[in-house]
Design a protein that fits this description.
The protein is mainly α. It has helices at about 10-25, 30-60, 60-70. It has one domain (about 10-70).
């Protein structure tokens, strides 16, 4: 996939930590930021699926959960 250059702002402390992490890992800052963004998007996409499944389980077992809570 083609890379696109962009500009953004973040707290200097966070950027310093990202740069240090990239250096320890022997990677570029760009690679670290790309991985972080991909992981964030993956988690964000999973949350609605997880919440729907959790609601279904809670609804299906509501009576049992009520009895256990007593």
């Amino acid at each position: 996939m083609a890379s696109v250059k962009f500009s953004s702002k973040m707290e200097s402390k966070v950027l310093k930590g990202l740069r240090a992490h990239a250096e320890r890992e022997g990677r570029t800052l760009s690679a670290v930021l790309t991985d972080a963004a991909e992981q964030y998007l993956e988690r964000a996409a999973t949350r609605p699926v997880y919440r729907k499944a959790a609601r279904e389980v809670l609804a299906e077992h509501a009576e049992l959960l009520e009895r256990l809570a007593r």
